[in-house]
Design a protein that fits this description.
The protein has about 300 residues and is an alpha/beta fold. It has eight helices and eleven strands. Pfam families: BD-FAE. GO terms for molecular function: hydrolase activity.
Length: about 300
């Protein structure tokens, strides 16, 4: 295994975060990484003053598995896509921290370090994140027995731009991107979308996410393709949404239009909107005593996903 600065930082973060549950990091791909080309791009990792970790320029995507305490796993798994505007990954507050909370529910979690759009290292930057998300779903499903998972209970969760990626995975699975897609399904069992970027329309877009993924002068077809409220169908997985009304970064209407699309297509959806909280609150919206993770636990339970 190649040891990198990021690997060391991740290990230090996990060790400093209290009792360590079983976890391991493994690459998404063996051999050549699809939609990649030689470049000088090198992964960077920055530790903020508050201890947060931000990763940029990902060239070697991977998954970090967080396993529930022995005897508590219920067979459900969630792949977590951290946010960061498709320019960086808030991999601690919207990744590792969330994985540990899911473990407390008996849910196995996999934090996805996905490639961020980059013209220097990718022939088609618009599909690189989705390639990685679909490969993560494939890989976890293929290794379900190893982790004692039910292959029909593997969902995907995303925050902000990671929410856009999760929503894309939940609406674009019928035609997987890339070549050599194989026969393993890439349809998530459910979606958990946290203050997600949903629409690339001029009125609802998060400019940075749209520009980074499809460029500053996208075609109308590209805008429509990646406006996921327009891609919902009756086959879209059950969806759980959380957003704050005063979000100035990603307008709350992103979640609302996705919820409305679910309603139109008969997709079971549950949405929790807080009047305050802004953007990027991670596990804890400090403006309320309510914990969205409690609502998520109840939703999982109501759908039978916490039953062994």
């Amino acid at each position: 295994m190649k040891i990198t600065a990021t690997t060391i930082l991740v290990s230090l973060f996990l060790l400093s975060a209290g009792p360590l549950l079983a976890q391991q990091t493994f690459p998404l791909y063996t051999g050549t990484i699809p939609d990649s080309k030689p470049s000088a791009v090198k992964e960077t990792s920055v530790t903020l003053d508050n201890g947060g970790v931000r990763i940029s320029n990902v060239v070697q995507p991977n998954l970090t598995a967080f396993l529930p305490a022995p005897g508590t796993a219920n067979g459900t798994a969630v792949i977590i896509c951290p946010g960061g505007g498709y320019t960086r990954l808030s991999i601690d507050s919207e990744g590792y921290d969330v994985a540990k909370r899911l473990n407390e529910m008996g849910v196995t979690a996999f934090v996805l370090k996905y490639r961020l759009p980059n013209d220097q290292s990718q022939p088609d930057k618009s599909i690189a994140p989705l390639l990685d998300a679909q490969q993560a779903l494939r890989l976890v499903r293929q290794q379900a027995a190893k982790y004692s998972l039910n292959p029909e209970r593997i969902g995907i969760m995303g925050f902000s731009a990671g929410g856009h990626l999760a929503a894309t995975a939940g609406t674009h699975f019928a035609k997987p991107v890339g070549e050599n897609v194989g026969s393993t399904s890439v349809r998530p069992a459910f979606l958990v979308l946290m203050y997600p970027v949903i629409s690339f329309s001029d009125t609802l877009k998060h400019t940075g996410s749209r520009d980074n993924l499809i460029g500053k002068t996208p075609t109308a077809e590209q805008v429509r393709l990646y406006s996921n409220e327009l891609q919902v169908s009756a086959q879209t997985p059950p969806t759980f949404l959380v957003h704050a009304q005063d979000d100035k970064t990603v307008p709350v209407n992103n979640s609302i239009v996705f919820y409305q699309a679910c309603l139109r297509h008969g997709v079971p959806a549950e949405m929790h909107l807080y009047p305050k909280g802004g953007h990027g609150f991670g596990l804890n919206n400090k403006t309320t005593k309510d914990l969205w993770t409690d609502r998520l636990r109840n939703w999982f339970d109501a759908n039978g996903w916490l039953t062994k």
